[in-house]
Amino acid sequence: MRTKGLNRKAVLAELAKAREQDLKYADGRILCSMCTEPHPMAKKAQQLFSSSNLGDPGLFPGSQRLEKEVIKNLAALLNGENCAGFLVSGGTEANLLALLAARNRANVSNPEVVLPESAHFSLTKACKLLGLKAVQASLDDSFRVDVSSVEQHINKHTVAIVGTAGTSELGAVDPIGKLSEIALSHGVYLHVDAAFGGLIIPFLKDAGEDEAAFDFRLEGVQSITVDPHKMGLTTIPAGGILFRDHAILDYLRTETPYLTEDCQHTFVGTRPGGSAAAAWAVFQTLGREGFEKTVKHCIGLTRLLASELKTLGFTLVAEPTLNIVAFRGSDTNMLSEKLRGRGWLVSYVPRLDCIRLVVMPHLKRRHVAAFLEDLKTIKGESF
Ligand SMILES: Cc1ncc(COP(=O)(O)O)c(C=O)c1O
User: Fold this and answer.
1) Residue 225 and residue 116 in one domain
2) Region for 187 from its dihedrals, namely left if φ exceeds 0, alpha if ψ lies in -120 to 50, beta otherwise
3) CB of 199 within 8 A of CB of 348?
4) pLDDT for residue 160 is more than 90
5) Separation of 1 CA from ligand 1 center, angstroms?
6) CB 228 near ligand 1, within 6 Å
7) Of 38, 228, 354, 355, whose CB is crowded by the most CB atoms within 10 A?
8) Which long-range contacts (CB under 8 A, 24 or more apart) does 142-149 make?
9) What CATH number is given to the structural domain containing 60?
10) Per-residue pLDDT tens for 226-276?
11) Which of 283, 318, 345 is the last residue of a domain?
12) pLDDT in tens, 169-221
C-alpha cells in the first residue's frame, strides 16, 4: 500500500485505465459468457445500497425486505409456495448449500451424490469440500442425463441426485420430471441446478413439456439454484438458492452470537444488500413482460445463428434448447483460435470438440451478422 494517498482525480484516472482493459458486453464480441450487461436500474440500485450488509439484517431491514421480495418472486416463478431461500454469491455457493443440506439431512456414512456427466464443475467443488463422493451418471444421445444410469448409481450411501435445467456447455435440460420420480421412489434428495435456465425456461412461450417441468411442481425437487446475475440482468454477485420449505434450513443453521440475527444459513457472512436491491429493481422495472421480451430476443437470435451455421456447412452438436449454440467443423479448435484472433470471444469445449456460443441479451442482430461474416471469411481461407 502507498504511504500517502493519491488525489481523487489520479485514482479515477487509474481506474479508467483498468476499465479500458476490460472487454465491454456492449461491443457484442463476448459470446462465451453467461453474464451480461446489467440493466441500468440494477446499477443504480447497487450504488444506492453499496453499504448495506444482508449478513446483519437488524441494521438493514429495508435491504432484507428487498431480498425477501426477490426470493418470493423467484419462488413464484418456480412454482414454490412455501419456499425459503437466499441471495448468495453465485451458483457455486447455491449448489454448495444444496448439497450441504442434502448431506446433513441424510446423515449417512460415506455419503455419495449422483451427478450428470454434464453437471457444472461447481458441484464437483462442493463434493470435495463436503466430503461427498461424486458418482457420474452418463448422458443420452441428446446430452441429457440418462435416468437409468442415475437410478443404477443410487445406493444406501446416496444423499442426493442432481439434474441441470440449462447445462453450461449446451443449455440442455435434464428430464427433471423423471428424476423427481426416481428421487421420490428412493427417498433421496433432488437438487436442480437451474443457475442459467431458471430465468429463461419460465419465460419461454413454446417450451416443450420436458423443459417446462423442472421446478417445485415436481414433488421430488427439494432445492433449485437460480442466478439473477446470469439471465436476470442484474449486477454481480447475485446467485439464488431456493429450498422447497423452511424445514430444510435446520440442516444449514449456524449460530451467530454477536450479530443482530441469531443464526445464518449461508456460507458467506457479510452479504451485499446492493445485490438484493439490484435484482429487485430489475424485477420491478421489467416485470414478466420484460423478461419474456428479453428471452424472445435471445432465442430468436439463437435460432438464426443455428440455422446460418448449418447453411455454412457446420454441424450442430445438438439443436439448441435454450440460448446456447454449439457447433463443430473440420478443425474446430483451430477455428476457435482464428475467431479469437479476429476479436470474437468464443469458448472451445475439448470434451465435445465444439465451439460454444452463449447468446446473451447484450448481443444484437448486427453482432451476429458480423460474426457470421467473419466465420465465412475464415472458412473460405482455410477449409
Ligand atoms: C449451470 C451452472 N451452475 C452453476 C454455475 C456456477 O455459477 P457461478 O459462476 O455464479 O458461481 C454456472 C456458471 O456458469 C452454471 O452454468
Assistant:
1) yes
2) left
3) no
4) yes
5) 34
6) no
7) 228
8) 142/172, 142/318, 143/118, 143/167, 143/170, 143/172, 143/317, 143/318, 144/172, 144/173, 144/174, 144/175, 145/116, 145/117, 145/118, 145/174, 145/175, 145/179, 147/175, 147/178, 147/179, 147/182
9) 3.40.640.10
10) 999 999 999 999 999 999 999 999 999 999 999 999 999 999 999 999 999
11) 283
12) 999 999 999 999 999 999 999 999 999 999 999 999 766 655 668 999 999 99
CA distance to 23, 50, 235, per residue, from 280 (Å): 26, 14, 11
Residues 359 and 239 in one domain: no
Which residues have C-beta within 8 Å of that of residue 180, sequence separation ≥ 6? 190, 218, 219, 220, 221
Summarised one tens digit per residue, pLDDT across range 335-352 is 999 999 999 999 999 999
Residue ending a domain, among 219, 252, 283, is: 283
State whether the beta carbon of 116 lies less than 6 angstroms from ligand 1. no
pTM of the predicted model over 0.85 = yes
**Are 304 and 243 found together in one domain?**
no
Asked if residue 90 has its Cβ within 6 Å of ligand 1, the reply is: yes
Q: Is 294 in the pocket of ligand 1 (CB under 6 A)?
A: no
Tell me, yes or no, whether 243 lies in a domain: yes
Locus of grid cell 461427498: 132
Place of cell 479515477: 12
Domain membership of residue 113 as a residue range: 41-283
Report the alpha-carbon distance of residue 357 to residue 372 in Å, rounded. Answer: 12
Query: Cβ(64) to ligand 1 under 6 A?
Result: no
Q: For residue 91, which atom of ligand 1 is closest to its CA?
A: 7
* From 30, 33, 89, 92, mutation site for ligand 1 pocket: most ligand atoms within 8 A of C-beta: 92
Does residue 356's CB lie within 6 angstroms of at least one atom of ligand 1?
no
- pLDDT at residue 209 in the model: 56
CB of 237 shorter than 6 A to ligand 1: no
Q: Based on the structure, what is the number of domains in the chain?
A: 2
What phi and psi, each to the nearest 5 degrees, are found at residue 347?
-110, 145
Distance of CA 93 to the CA centre of its chain: 11
Indicate whether residue 174 lines ligand 1 (CB < 6 A): no
